[in-house]
Amino acid sequence: QVQLVESGGGLVQAGGSLRLSCAASGRIFSTYAMGWFRQAPGKEREFVAAISWAGGYTYYADSVKGRFTISRDYAKNTVYLQMNSLKPEDTAVYFCAAQQRGSGTYPRVRDKYDYWGQGTQVTVSS
């Protein structure tokens, strides 16, 4: 089991920045990747960014590339999502997720993630 706790969401004006954190505990050693997804009202949960836990390889959705940066602190078992140049369309609940080893490597695929956090709200005002 892996437990995930997100923090750092809030209300920000367009053009502003926020940093989300995801603290992981439990069987971290069996994790292939950590990802961030988001879900806006009435929409499906979509991929935002991911990072391979061991190698630190990063993956981004086209909509956030160049504005968001995912990183991890190996010693703290924490993943971060630095969000800059925020837009109103970035408003959503942001979820942290963990994908375990053993079933291939699909950092962008929502259904391949095994554990999820409770989510944190990000609201960008125009």
Structural features:
126 residues; mainly beta; 7-stranded mixed β-sheet; 4-stranded antiparallel β-sheet
Q: Can you walk me through this structure?
A:
The protein has strands at residues 2-7, 10-13, 18-26, 31-39, 46-52, 58-60, 68-73, 78-83, 92-100, 115-116, 120-125. By secondary structure, the protein is mostly beta strands. The strands form two sheets. Strands 2, 4, 5, 6, 9, 10 and 11 form a seven-stranded mixed β-sheet that branches. The radius of gyration is 14 Å and the shape is globular. It starts with a strand and ends with a strand.
SSE blueprint:
Layout (H helix, E strand, L loop, with lengths): L1 E6 L2 E4 L4 E9 L4 E9 L6 E7 L5 E3 L7 E6 L4 E6 L8 E9 L14 E2 L3 E6 L1
State mean pLDDT (0 to 100 scale). 95
Q: Supply the number of helical segments.
A: 0
**What's the shape?**
globular
> Which segments are poorly predicted (pLDDT under 50) over 5 or more consecutive residues?
none
Distance separating the two termini? 40 Å
The proportion of residues forming helix, as a percent range, comes to under 10%
Short description:
The chain has 126 residues and is mostly beta strands.
